[in-house]
Amino acid sequence: MRPAEACAWCGAPFDGGSQRLDRRTGCRRCGAATTDPRPDDAELEAAYGDWYRPAGGGRFNFAGDAILGRTRGLLARRLDEIAPPGPILDVGAGEGTLLDALAARGREVTGLERGAKRGDFVDGSIEAVRRGDGWAAVVFWHSLEHLPRPRAAIREAARLLAPGGVLIVAVPNTGSIQARLFGDRWLHLDIPRHLVHLSTATLTTGLGDDGFRVEAVSHLRAGQVVIGWLAGLVASLPGGLDLYQALRRPEARLAPLTPARRIASLAAGAILLPLAAAGAAAEIPLRRGGTVYVEARRI
Fold first, then answer.
1. Number of domains in the chain
2. Is the distance from CB of 88 to CB of 137 less than 8 angstroms?
């Protein structure tokens, strides 16, 4: 790892007045935070590893994968409604759930994903995508925060999109109540995989500066709000419990989890679920939800 010298979002150099936090540095100019020190390529490869998206199955026990799939299906319907005719690019396509839902609606689709294993996937950066295809939409669904040059990716999306094309971004919201409450225990920090940490204001201001007109902002549509509360509440208990890892399948865990620790984490999650739901219900109407979803159109 190496110290971060500048903001990953706006590029402003860090100095003695920059806000130093645990494993990240805040930018005085734009309000974003940058993971600090910055992991190198080998460290990032180890941070994902085979456990992050295991082959041959989903990542979560219970109904976790089905819920994620349902969320992507709803996004496909919304995207098909607001995007002009043309192909759609999903940056960080994961298992391809959104691509499948869009293809079922007759859309031409391409996904960017490391270690691409499907014919409609490309293993590469957004800079390698052809510009002449007149893309109708570019999607960063909880992927922008993983990119080493997120602002450059946004600007590249602006160049790829056809006139009137739509940009979709969903990211964790550092201005949320849960982020402020749980601090370094907040699930959605996800360091070192998340390299930049954005608030709603920082994100939307940046999009405006890069040639987009923000048309919709939602603190519900981006999903993953309740789990942020629930994992934070469980992590606040004594005993080092980890609900997120307990919810993942054994082959999709960062490290082995003893049966006793897993049962204790799941039991704590079940008990605290009403409190987590209440926290999410409170922060969403205040527009301080744990994640934020933005629709923007190329000007």
1. 1
2. yes
Amino acid making up residue 66: A
CATH of the domain at 98: 3.40.50.150
Q: How far is it, in rounded angstroms, from Cα 299 to Cα 292?
A: 22
Q: What pTM did the predictor assign?
A: 0.94
Question: What is the per-residue pLDDT for 133?
Answer: 66
* 198 belongs to a structural domain: yes
Residue 72 covered by a domain: yes
Taking the C-alpha atoms of residue 137 and residue 135, their distance in angstroms, rounded to an integer, is 6
**By the 8 A CB rule, do 191 and 39 touch?**
no
- The residues, any chain, with a CB within 8 Å of residue 265's CB and separated by 6 or more, are 234, 241, 242, 243, 245, 246, 257
Domain range holding 125? Answer: 21-223+292-298
Q: Tokens standing for 283?
A: 């922060």
- Residue-level pLDDT at 61: 75
Reported as half-sphere exposure (CB side, CA atoms, 13 A), residue 188 has a value of 33
